[in-house]
């Protein structure tokens, strides 16, 4: 006996062969709306997702009130860097490859988007094979998705048995639980599906006047014999008939037209699930039926089921954890081939194990994506999970030719847009790397002695370099041309540090002769010299609004008016050389770290010492304020990193490794503030979780102390520079997948 497939089955199968997720036939019937973290199941007769509870919400959240919660329920915590949000991810919709758009002036093969911006819509669609599907959107759709990561997989594995126990207690059995990890949502939609060969002979017209939100759009089906295509529009509460023209412009995009998900399959029940075809079973792409069959039989088969089969055939795992993103990664973001089982056998993907559960290796995908940037490999250690060190991809910013003896590097400078890294060397040259590609972009020569410091202008167009030859050169980043040579430094005055004002009009240099020179970027002329220090100028920085400039030398800091070089105040109190200086983001405070084992916080306006931190046992070499300016992190030669309250000086936590002899040379907060990066004397980069004091990752690659750590503005990249002469780029996004 032949069976007619449900419209939702064919629709979902036809449009799920994209990188959008699982296509949902009845978005308006999932109430309340589908949310990331939902755990539930797909109805076998209507394809509607039904939520049971949400793992990213607390037990008392309204989403977790309708049903009992699983035993020992705890909210899932994960790093927000894994969230990907895209506005207008889809503009007007999608159609399957079997569908052709005619009489519209559109190329059906271009992006598979059947929408137009003309005021009058008149689109005709035909199905070229036995099955096809069409989605038309009102005003576009947004996307949010949580990237596949170990934290979610471990949480699901550790709690799955409790979920099954809950289902049994409320009388729900023989369903496949799914966990929502992402969605694509629109405000209104029109959907159509050609479920079989007879329906494929019908032509569908979508027409109307004005925009989708304000005009009238209607479906019409050509008069042919046989079972017609199925179509509907919605949501129902925003229209009266099979039209989406009678409601006002949409406010909320709350209709889930695609859903990304994770599911767990138990080997014990897999045979029965296969026999019953399962709620996720879908017909094959373009499945042909006999020409004489009025209604054809559809083989209910989801490519994910093939992946589950492959896992159970090739591992001893009791559970298989699979996701729609697995198909995307395995097929290089193309549609799965018709013979997907054979494709899997030939590709032979690798799987990771969590106890008795197997899942597609996250690291393999990280390696593959990183290979596009020609990575080198360091080592990552995840003591939190008890793992042995594994190879970790990162990009070594280097020349394409072997090292020609550049010599020791200066501290690295990162452009404000995160696109370039500059480092000076003892060979009198400086190098600029493109962070995105990892390639050496510029080799600049003009100095006659080793380059000691570099700085990018706020507009990212100019690089300044200071040298032991007592000169400051300014370079055009685009062309590599020398724009200007700043004069006015004494012959014996090596330029130790350089800084641009926030508006890019002033450049300030600090020299070994204890002088600070204020110069015009436009003319290169020095218009003021700041005197008062007695030793080499170690640091220079402007407060964010540019009205004040801070310098440090020996045991003191001074505040200057950059307009005329007038000294305003002196900050004294340290009894050892100041090795570190930073400014709060609001410009009201500075922090210093010194040889006297202390870190101190100062009021810039008054010069008053506000807080003294005495928890280190050796020199403090690095300090930085948290993004909200409420905490200060400091790194010391005693091997510890501490976080203190900026107002009270109270100690929040101390990060320390087992290698007590390994000093901390540099520290940095992540832009969100939930992670601390520490650069150590042995070349190791360690990441620490500020919420629980645990080490997240240990990244190896450098061969000498890390002198600089910089997070990129996009929050996804860490750039490190080392005394070994190299700079390296690490993907925070990839690291968090296994955190």
Automatic annotation (TrEMBL):
It holds the Pfam family WD40. InterPro entries: WD40/YVTN_repeat-like_dom_sf, WD40_PAC1, WD40_repeat_CS, WD40_repeat_dom_sf, WD40_rpt. This is WD40 repeat-like protein. It comes from the Eukaryota. WD repeats lie at residues 444-485, 571-612, 613-654, 664-698, 699-732. Keywords: Repeat, WD repeat.
